[in-house]
Write a structure and sequence with these properties.
2 copies of one chain form a homodimer. By secondary structure, the first copy, chain A, is α/β, with parallel strands linked by helices. Chain A has 3 domains: 1-74, lambda repressor-like DNA-binding domains (434 Repressor (Amino-terminal Domain), Orthogonal Bundle), CATH 1.10.260.40; 79-175 and 312-337, Rossmann fold; 179-310 and 342-355, Rossmann fold (3-Layer(aba) Sandwich). The first copy, chain A, is 37% helix and 16% strand. Chain A has 11 helices and 12 strands. A 6-stranded parallel sheet of chain A has the order 2-1-3-4-5-11. In chain A, strands 7-6-8-9-10-12 form a 6-stranded mixed sheet, with helices on both faces. In chain A, helix 4 (90-105) crosses helix 11. The interface between A and B is large, with 45 and 45 residues.
């Protein structure tokens, strides 16, 4: 059964009324606050003054309200929804692995779906919790509109984001990696090897994680007194094809780079291929650094130097945060970033003497 | 709510009785058949005589029974469980992608879990449907005991297997690929290139798919009049490490093979690495064929010749079969094998003249 937290919005599919429970309007009137504030308390948000929170929580308890303020947000179904932007990368399976492991330990099932935006079948992702009677959503590398967020909030669905494309509101719980530090470390490694013409291939330019990595790259160059050449920064999708196409462009430049920092391991594999077709050896003629540290990295020829993202741990933390929200315990800070770490393998070396 | 199809076994966790419904024993007595036969009809099994099935189905309808014979097995929750042996391979995500796509189109959620065998938390996989109130299970590359199967049957849970390790009963619906034909095609390709010393690295020796591929390999050699050298057939896990370790052993033989047919693309990547460390070039000194055709194959250096398994389609067919079972429509044949296909890329070539 889906428990409602307000009465005015239209019913999401599958929702049922809990007839004997007071509306948010009643609670709000008794507490002398707005309905929005009651809703914030119910959803475990952190932007409510402590005194107000306590007053609202006491009323919710009095009315035996099932939200987190009431006592615990009931784990109604023992299910959560994991909604992914795509399943076309081993990246996604690493996140899934962490979410599944944490949820299995806590006796919670994970319903896995892809983001779909249209309103017909298959249903839009924000309708899935109502459809599956699940208690919350982990949304991975996706864009969220204010409307979607409001819809989830009305339905009393808890939400955690992993690597969000955008952050519509600063108080939503989200989990990521230290992308800026990763971009910095990768670039500093190449600078220390003696490279000066260092290119970067980012993911899509509108993604937060891309922006943070590019900023880390720029800062490393600036700290080393190397001027940032805008022509050496390219954007593309995170897949093999993106890395291949962008590397072909970079290697065709009159003054080609001697090193490439790719935004994902799959892009780095595309860069390997482009180098091979151009008759260049990795790392003798071209150094390549990836991002992610997928299990396959150490099996590439040569094994790939890359920035490790703790993907499985990110999945675990996202699941733990969501389950804590459902227990009425909001996270200490809404945004958590887990540490990235450079893994040096065999795809990076000093530039050839003629290039220096 | 979990609907029960019999009353005698102990309750699975989360199960609730549907009190007004007759027991299987009553139906069986009225139909003049055994309880086991009623259970078979309920579970959509094919090994019941048509006249008997019709008689039982009519009684089930009379009693408003919710099984597939009754009219439709109610899609109680709109959820199915997808249980995987592991999430440590991109292989699994391809199956998941197909299951998710098919289920999304049919408005069904997919709860993803790993096989766990212990009875404590996390719960054993065969308890998941009761826990999640799901209608059925797709079990991937796993072993199933008769006890587990009986437990699912008692709980009225429909079941489809993908690439089962063993087949405990021939009437369970299962989906696989034409592994034998794939083993044959891979080996014939190497023979046509002129190879005679062809090694094979299988997956675990007790898996059905391994046995079928090894048999295809043997048949190809025998048809070409090449004696099968048992020392050239090795078994290992399907991961990089397995391919690496077995290739090291094979390349250390006094009369080493000139070609290796690996049981998975990940094994083939391990073989690449072992060849590189031995100072051998692929394909000039060693030809390598993989199995699966993961998206990464065409991005390896050199791009990998492999046997394509239609993994996403296998996931789709498994989901479709399960949803049909839930609608009371058993599959025409319990076992379906989708076609494999050889994809020739750049990792295979004639053996070096000195080796011929």
């Amino acid at each position: 059964m889906t428990v409602r937290t307000t009465e005015d919005p239209p019913d999401p599919p599958g929702a049922q009324h809990a007839p004997s429970r007071p509306t948010l309007a009643v609670i709000a009137a008794e507490a002398g606050v707005s309905q929005a504030t009651v809703s914030k308390v119910l959803n475990g948000r952190t932007d409510v003054a402590a005194a107000t929170r306590e007053r609202v929580e006491a009323l919710l308890r009095d009315h035996n309200y099932p939200g987190p303020g009431g006592s615990r947000r009931a784990r109604r179904s023992g299910l959560i929804d994991l909604v992914l932007a795509g399943l076309d990368s081993p990246w996604a399976v690493e996140i899934l692995r962490g979410v599944e492991a944490e949820c299995a330990e806590q006796g919670t099932g994970v319903v896995v779906s892809l983001v779909r935006e249209d309103d017909a079948r298959p249903p839009s992702w924000q309708n899935l919790p109502a459809l599956h009677h699940s208690d919350g959503v982990i949304l991975v590398t996706s864009r969220m509109t204010d409307r979607q967020r409001a819809q989830l909030e009305r339905a009393g669905v808890a939400l955690v984001l992993v690597d969000p494309v955008n952050l519509p509101d600063s108080d939503i719980a989200s989990v990521g990696a230290t992308n800026w530090a990763g971009g910095l470390a990768a670039t500093e490694h190449l600078i220390e090897l003696g490279h000066r013409r260092i290119a970067m291939i980012g993911g899509p330019g509108d993604m937060l994680c891309t922006q943070a990595r590019v900023d880390g790259y720029r800062t490393a160059l600036e700290r080393a007194g190397i001027e940032v050449d805008r022509g050496l920064v390219r954007y593309g999708d995170f897949h093999h094809e993106g890395g291949f196409a962008r590397t072909r462009e970079l290697l065709a430049l009159p003054d080609r780079p001697t090193a490439i920092f790719a935004g994902s391991d799959q892009q780095a594999m595309g860069a390997y291929q482009a180098a091979r077709l151009a008759g260049l050896r990795v790392p003798e003629d071209l150094s390549v650094v990836g991002f992610d540290d997928l299990p396959t990295c150490e099996w590439l020829s040569p094994p790939l130097t890359t920035v490790r993202q703790p993907l499985e741990e990110m999945g675990r933390v996202a699941a733990r945060t969501l389950l804590q929200l459902l227990d009425g315990r909001p996270p200490l800070t809404p945004r958590v970033e887990l540490a990235t770490e450079l893994r040096v393998r065999a795809s990076t070396a000093p530039p050839a003497p003629s290039e220096q």
